[in-house]
Design brief:
2 copies of one chain form a homodimer. Chain A is mainly alpha-helical and 159 residues long. Chain A has a single domain, classed as Winged helix-like DNA-binding domain superfamily/Winged helix DNA-binding domain (Arc Repressor Mutant, subunit A, Orthogonal Bundle). Chain A has 7 helices and 3 strands; from the N terminus they run αααβααββαα. The first copy, chain A, has a 3-stranded antiparallel beta sheet. In chain A, α2 crosses α6, α3 crosses α5 and α4 packs across α5. The radius of gyration of chain A is 20 Å and the shape is globular. The interface between A and B is large, with 72 and 72 residues.
Amino acid sequence: MGRKALQRSNDMDLSLDASDLEDLIGYNLKRAYVIVQIDFRKALGQDGMSARVFSALSLCIRYPNITQSELARMMGIERSGLVAIVDELEAKKHLQRAPVPGDRRVQALVPTEAGRAAYDATLKAVRAHEDRLFEDMSAEEKETLLALLKKIRNREEDA
Amino acid sequence: MGRKALQRSNDMDLSLDASDLEDLIGYNLKRAYVIVQIDFRKALGQDGMSARVFSALSLCIRYPNITQSELARMMGIERSGLVAIVDELEAKKHLQRAPVPGDRRVQALVPTEAGRAAYDATLKAVRAHEDRLFEDMSAEEKETLLALLKKIRNREEDA
């Protein structure tokens, strides 16, 4: 992108093809994320899970009986933001709220059989979307990218 | 993160410390971006520019007389989403709308002197935020990360 727009405008300085933004990791992270996010939605379809709902269900399956507070913390979002996600998963019968023995104030999130089946199908579609979208990256490049992104994510402990 | 939450919950399976999400590039991109975005806001302060406004001003300075349509395309956002950003920059007297010779239907965006000064100060603060946030990454790691993110961004041409 950018280049196409530039070609249409005659009075622009084309001596450099990059702004200051191109050297910023934050800007490039955002732009790359937008590409992936748009392709995710396209791949999963209008009736497919959103990335947030998919992430929440994944963690509920990985950690059955997780509480909403724990799930919000794991996802790095506010507990208030999680409510709509859990409501959606419960409405679709992918999750149930269950009592927590010894603590009547909180409820645990338990995936249903239908939730597990929907998750398996969605995970397959998500992996196919990433395989296709990143087909021009080698396995080594993907591993390097994941390792560097996780290095940034180490800051999550501080946040 | 995650680990802290896990320690509080006794009935979780701790044999693996990762869900399926950890292998997905999209999920890691999002999580890393959130870390950077939160630190950006913290570094720039309540009255500082948002990342979007900063990006828009950067491109207006890099490409003076750019039109709103071109700017939206460059930023990868809808033209409608750009209006609020340009309005904010105009209200702060960082940008002016100017007539485009030969095309009375469109207006070009021209940075003011105050806009250039505000941009220079903000760019300095943004670079300091990235230097600090990524201080545990070597120059080579940062370059590798940027190159891999730009490889994903090549898809912008297709979108």
